[in-house]
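To: structure subgroup
Subject: Chain for Friday's discussion

All,

I'm putting the inputs and outputs inline so they're searchable in the archive.
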Amino acid sequence: MSSLPAEPVRAPAPLAAVRSGVPEHGEPPKYFQVKQKIDAVLEELGPGATLPTERQFADRFGVSRMTVRQAIRELRLEGRVQRSGRSTVAGRPKLVQPLTLASYTEGVRSQGRRPGRELIILERLPADAALATGLRIELGAPVFHLERLLLADEERVGLESTYLSAARFPTLIDEFDPSTSLYAYLRGTGVVLADADERIETVLGSPREVQLIGTTPALPMLLLSRVTRDRQGEPVECVRSLYRGDRFSFTAHLTAEED
């Protein structure tokens, strides 16, 4: 009898498509076959390399340019290729962000990329019903709203809105540098983050969000909504983070609950 491995076996990321995309009723669509062939070309070329033109791909694979265009459109939505001027180039690997209480800055930096943030809004406003519930404050109580573009190597990859109680952090506007990590600032005030509830869903960005991030309305976005608490169980922040689906993926370590 073989022994169990000493270390847990981790699933590869990403997993290969189940059965290579072949449906139960027969052959996969022609565009999908072309997509797989172009994907193999991407593996050979490497990130940043310029792809052959649609016409060149059509001649190479013996299909129409429309079929090639549909295949490339899907690869672009998946982040496998991207536009660069009038050319299409192989995309860079997605940023892999762990679902932990580490900051965005720490997560991006750990992958050898240069994190950055660009301030859009830093304002004081009254809490609506949702914020009052999330932060456990009175309806209409003042909160700070911090909205920033998320950057990785100067590329716009997301948009983050954070809400904090103005009564709890009265000097935030005067002391906090919006280009730096908010979590580092909070630690400096003595706040220790302990746990959070987070919800993840797929959405399409609003016209304003699409313009700020610099994407297209058809690009799927990953929306993370989170309430973070300190060691005393008191809410510290409500956060709405919108990430480009073609540039981000998320990981989580799961453990089984005891019966």
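Points worth raising on Friday:
Confidence is low (pLDDT under 50) at residues 1-11.
The domain at 95-251 is CATH 3.40.1410.10 (Chorismate lyase).

D.
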